[in-house]
Amino acid sequence: MTLSLIATFAWLVLANVLAMLPSNDNHWRRAYFLIALGLPLLIWVFWQNGPWIGLLALAAGMSVLRWPVRYLMRWLRGLVAKT
């Protein structure tokens, strides 16, 4: 197992632990923190393990951060609908 996958699994554990802790802002600050950590990890996984494993890591990250992904999709749909 490569170091990038170990770091990604550690990110997933950290994300789950942070989700269990109470939050006043519905976990948005933690989501921003996890996104900032996760994007370089995702690039590293794609570079070191190839596209298929990278897509699996992307799917795992999207399953953890599903609300930011939903809001991003709504925002993108709104941009497309305006044009």
TrEMBL record:
Keyword terms: Membrane, Transmembrane, Transmembrane helix
Name of this protein: DUF2484 family protein
Transmembrane segments: 29-47, 52-69
InterPro entries xref list: DUF2484
Annotated Pfam families: DUF2484
